Amino acid sequence: MSGTASIREDDIVSVGRRLPRLTTVEPREGRKLFVRFDNGVEKTVDLAPALESRRFYKPLRKDDALFRSFRINEYRNAIEWNDELDFSAMWLEALPPAEFSNDDFRNAMEQLDQTLDGMARALELSRRQVAYYAKDRPIPRHVGLAVRYLLEHRPSA
Prior knowledge:
By secondary structure, the protein is α+β, with helices and mostly antiparallel strands.
């Protein structure tokens, strides 16, 4: 058996990574939520793709009133709508932020040590399109996700 465990002074056993806890969740346009975790991390996430991925979320896909009726559960480890529908804080934490700004794009290019040409090759886009994204053109969700993928899977130095 491998792993780490510890007991704090208040007799709480801690094993592995701490589970995320929600402090604030607020609805935004469409199926987006603003989420704040107890560690201070804040982001806006889009639940639409996740709601489309599971049949049991079908009631939440079109019913705005139902979608906005969520609450944080008593343990702060999920949001719930009723006795049948919930969405865990772990999943909310794992979702990428809904927006990917031009600043995010430029910062990613810098972190990846990429020129416009290199980024264009990596994303299979034209150099001109990459230049637009690096400047001020709105960045489509699929491009933002592709850039996040490149960041997460870049070779170690």
